[in-house]
Model the fold of this input.
Amino acid sequence: MTPLLTTDAIVVESYVGPKDERSLADDVLDGLTRPFKELPPKHFYDARGAELFDRICELPEYYPTRAERAILEERSADIVEATGAAELVELGSGTAAKTRLLLRAMADAGTLRRYVPLDVTESMVLTCADELVDEFPGLRVHGIVGDFERHLTHVPPPDGPRIVAFLGGTIGNFTPGTRRRFLRAIGRLLRPGVDHLLLGTDLVKDPAVLEAAYDDSAGVTAEFNRNVLHVINRELDANFDVGAYEHVAFFDREREWIEMRLRAERRMDVHVGKLGLDVAFAPREELRTEISAKFTVKRLTADLAASGLELRDVLTDPDELFALSLSGRPAG
Ligand code: SAH
Ligand code: TRP
Done:
């Protein structure tokens, strides 16, 4: 652990190397040498990736952010009343844009004590810690720069009734088995009968609407998808011809998830300098970069139950595009 910042109101700890190079190296070595090439999604989010993701959230086609925000605008006070939350732990917190609505409701209820953001991107954790202690007098921030798949155990013990928020539909980026394992790990941060998980899930809907959200007409999502190749070029001294990979996004109706891929437009021979690795792409060969699972309330309930969590409430926007659910470990 490296302490990055300590003031009266702020502690920020880091559990990743400056660029978490090792994990990128492992993932590239592993993912690009498989029979079906694949990379985990967390490597999209360098500074440029984070900026592109912010632009995705503003796109007319990308409805999840607006729908989730609408639910929080409408229901944050109810969520705070139902949970009595004094502390908000947020996984994959990013810029904490929507989180402010929850923190505001906690402050208005007079319960707000602490915010614990956890994100892989160091600059986001530092910036939002600074901004939030200014915005919410008396708030303490315990920031964690880390990987939520590896560093959940570094979340400090609760300071009052806790909400763990996992927003943006990011839970959909896990494959089904891993998703349940992850929910179980989140459960360990919750005291039975006291603390709550607030989970954002995108809902199953018209495939055309879903596909447009991941393949916008301005090409921002395509840029975001290709950004992972820029990251590998820079961090691992590789020579991907980034412009020669086509963005592919489609809804798998069977599995009910969006799949994002990069398709090599011709044969490519890529050298990854720092790994001494040569990787060949056949013409039109695809690299899977992300899935984004879409939910029904039935699937959500089953996943939570299989992970030892009990669904308490499901909140949706008027068009039922997105759901925020509140769940917890059963008391006793
Ligand atoms: N919660 C925000 C951001 C969602 S984007 C919202 O709802 O708009 C996903 C966020 O998760 C990014 O900020 C990214 O940096 C972070 N992230 C992705 N994979 C991660 C991982 N494995 N560990 C920690 N943070 C991760
Ligand atoms: N968690 C977001 C989602 O699944 C991330 C995301 C949105 C994304 N658009 C993307 C990831 C495009 C990769 C490519 O909705």
In short: The pocket of S-adenosyl-L-homocysteine (ligand 1) is lined by residues 42, 45, 53, 65, 92-94, 98, 119-121, 124, 147-149, 167-168, 170 (CB under 6 Å). The mean pLDDT is 95.
